[in-house]
Amino acid sequence: MTEEDDILAAEHALGLADESAREASDPAFAAAVEAWRARLDPLLGPGRAPPPELWNRIQRRLPANEPGDPARPWRFATFAASAAAAVLLGILVLRPDGTAPTPAPQVATTPAAKMMVAALTPKEGSGTLTIAYDEREGRMTVTPVGMDADGRTPELWVIPADGKPRSLGVIAAKDARTMIVAGGHRPLLASGVTLAVSLEPEGGSPTGQPTGPVVMTGTMTIV
After folding, report:
1. What is the 3-state secondary structure (H, E, C) of the chain?
2. Whole-prediction pTM
3. What's the Cα-to-Cα distance from 203 to each of 22, 155, 159, 171, rounded to whole Å?
4. Which of 24, 145, 156, 214 has the most Cβ atoms closer than 10 angstroms to its Cβ?
């Protein structure tokens, strides 16, 4: 089967040419016709012929015939019509009512939420602070183990690339606590960002910056 034979098979499947005799006697050509019918049936509907205006729409998109050889316009139009029927059908086929098919809507996908963890350790002494953060809900669970707050209030800070600490809130010195991170601070909680704990007066830092000693530090990691 040549490329021209395949185009003729497509034209026959569309009803633009009658090659019934060849289809009956040439198994390879008949298989090509059936293959084209299988491709076209989902577009045209089972047993449905191309809409009458399809041929006119194809002709309007063909290049103008060149002057010169008197037989050239007919030869070019015959080949171009076959090619257009096979190649352009996908963008020219219309519904029976003359309207173009509506593209299937794209389904938006929601990126998977990241879970992050951190383990903060002291510069000196013992104790740890483990943190689990759910990015989707902005929910952070803070669990201290063996922390000695020396009677003061621990406050948790995030320190982004600009080096300026932002308070995530006061935490308990002995018990696990879950809190919701403020919306403006959530973008700061990325992999590799530094977290720190300072010891502040009751109720937390009065200045919006750490005023007491920084006793623990660690970094966030995506899991």
Report:
1. CCHHHHHHHHHHHHCCCCCHHHHHHCHHHHHHHHHHHHHHHHHHCCCCCCCCHHHHHHHHCCCCCCCCCCCHHHHHHHHHHHHHHHHCHHHHCCCCCCCCCCCCCCCCCCCCCCEEEEEEEECCCCCEEEEEEECCCCEEEEEEECCCCCCCEEEEEEECCCCCCEEEEECCCCCCEEEECCHHHHHHCCCCCEEEEEEECCCCCCCCCCCCCEEEEEECEEC
2. 0.51
3. 92, 9, 20, 10
4. 156
pLDDT at 76: 40
Could you read off the pLDDT of 124-178 as tens digits, one per residue? 778 899 999 999 999 999 999 988 888 899 999 999 999 999 999 999 998 899 9
Token digits of residue 80: 């171009």
The CA–CA distances, whole Å, from 91 to 4, 54, 85, 143, 214 equal 21, 11, 11, 61, 67
Q: 67-122, pLDDT tens digit by residue?
A: 554 444 444 444 444 444 444 444 444 444 555 555 555 555 555 667 999 999 99
Q: What is the pLDDT of residue 30?
A: 86
CB 23 within 8 A of CB 30: yes
**Where do the domains of the chain lie, and which CATH numbers do they carry?**
3-92 (no CATH), 115-222 (2.60.40)
